[in-house]
Amino acid sequence: MVTFVDRVTLHLRAGKGGNGCVSVRREKFKPLAGPDGGNGGHGGDIVLIADPQVTTLLSYHHSPHRAAGNGGFGMGDNRSGAAGDSLELPVPVGTVVKDPSGETLVDMIDPGMRFVVAPGGLGGLGNAALANPKRKAPGFALLGTPGWEGDVLLELKTVADVALVGFPSAGKSSLIAAVSAARPKIADYPFTTLHPNLGVVQAGDTRFTVADVPGLIEGASEGKGLGLEFLRHVERCTALVHVLDCATLDPGRDPLTDLDVILAELGAYPVPEGQVPLLERPQLVALNKVDVPEAKDLADMVRPELEERGFRVFEISTVSHEGLRPLTYALGDIVARHRAEQAAAPVPERIVIRPKGSERAFWVRVEGGTYGNIYRILGEKPVRWVQQTDFQNEEAVGYLADRLEKLGVEDELFRAGATPGATVVIGEGDGVVFDWDPSLTSVAELATAPRGTDPRLLQSSRRTTSERREKYHDMMDAKAEARAQLEAERLATRADVDGDGDDE
């Protein structure tokens, strides 16, 4: 049974915006007193909240599909639709939110931090909001836009000050249970710990958090054992404690070789850009199980060599609690000094300058197709406007055309080489397909032929005088020929009738 989850993929769907309303106010003696259709409500957002009371992503592992409420439709009498209910999802402090490609969206390291991961759709405007002096009674309203829909990856990285690392069964769980109130599972077989355990330690005036990381083995950075799954929980720690088993019965193992293997795996693990590499952080060595006589002798033997390599060494026993107090106070000094350095470090002021109009409102991408080029219009505004348009309403379609023309879409299509009747698609994928019919507003802008010529004049259907005279003569000749044929048929019929009379 899964009890701890530190990585999960969420399938999210934000709320859809409600449609605007088309309505006309009716009063006594005023059957058409003006538009009064209300706006649709906005769709609900999906918000992630860093909650210190949450320690695992287990609930999202069992229920990864989450959706927010849709906005209500607008109504007559200027009544707006209700906004959709937002959905708040609590996640552990230290959760990293990524998109499906692996790019980090936000790092939720502060308790109470909020992040709108899926914004809801916009509510459509009613015909009352669309009325203006030129359009006093709109017969259409805007539709609500769909909310954001997609997948995000949640990855938990434990927020702790000190990480306990070492081989399986080195005594890490026993150590965290001895110095804190944590009660992890402890047994005499490898890989007892299947997920990181946290414990709070009080050393004098300093209180810090210790994380018990599951056992590492050789090749952990390449995916062997459980190490790779939990090495990311070491990224946020200030100091590392190498817990070395001095009473191991495994052949070929001793504290020095165990330390070399662990250091090699920590050095091979890449940390995110901007963070201190694991091997450059403060490191202490805890020689565990010195309550065993043979282990005590081995600890005394390897301690000088470890100190020569620059490590502070502590001989401890989680059974008799020998050496635990000096170890915790040493860790407390490291944590306190690190916190003081962070508090004294100046925080650079972040200034974000976003000039108005610095971002492109839209752009045209030319794509080759089987029956000619396809001109794809991309941009937030055109796509949103298409989503808001009711294509069953001709007035709404005309309103969309006006908006696109004012945005400069037609001019950009001409620059891209589009001609009347070309296929235009708005949005990615299938999008909305149009046969482009440009509006004739400026002869200079619409002249697509070489200089000095105009295809509209060359294709004129007006007949010249000679053409009209020739067609008139042809018509008169046809009439004369028809009259002659009728006269001949009349004479032939009369001759037949006269011949019949002689026989009688």
TrEMBL record:
Pfam families: DUF1967 (PF09269), GTP1_OBG (PF01018), MMR_HSR1 (PF01926). Its EC number is 3.6.5.-. Monomer. The keyword Ubl conjugation does not apply. InterPro entries: G_OBG (IPR031167), GTP-bd (IPR006073), GTP-bd_Obg/CgtA (IPR014100), GTP-bd_prot_GTP1/OBG_C_sf (IPR036346), GTP1-OBG_CS (IPR006074), GTP1_OBG_dom (IPR006169), GTP1_OBG_dom_sf (IPR036726), OBG_GTPase (IPR045086). Its cofactor is Mg(2+). This is GTPase Obg. It comes from the Bacteria. Keywords: Cytoplasm, GTP-binding, Hydrolase, Magnesium, Metal-binding, Nucleotide-binding. It is an enzyme of class 3 (hydrolase). Belongs to the TRAFAC class OBG-HflX-like GTPase superfamily. OBG GTPase family. Residues 464-478 have a biased composition (Basic and acidic residues). Mg(2+) binds at residues 173, 193. Residues 453-478 are annotated as: Disordered. It is found in: Cytoplasm. An essential GTPase which binds GTP, GDP and possibly (p)ppGpp with moderate affinity, with high nucleotide exchange rates and a fairly low GTP hydrolysis rate. Plays a role in control of the cell cycle, stress response, ribosome biogenesis and in those bacteria that undergo differentiation, in morphogenesis control. The keyword Lipid metabolism does not apply. Residues 160-336 form the OBG-type G domain. GTP binds at residues 166-173, 191-195, 212-215, 288-291, 317-319. NCBIfam families: Obg_CgtA, Obg_CgtA_exten, PRK12296.1, PRK12297.1, PRK12299.1. Residues 2-159 form the Obg domain. Its main location: cytoplasm. Residues 354-438 form the OCT domain.
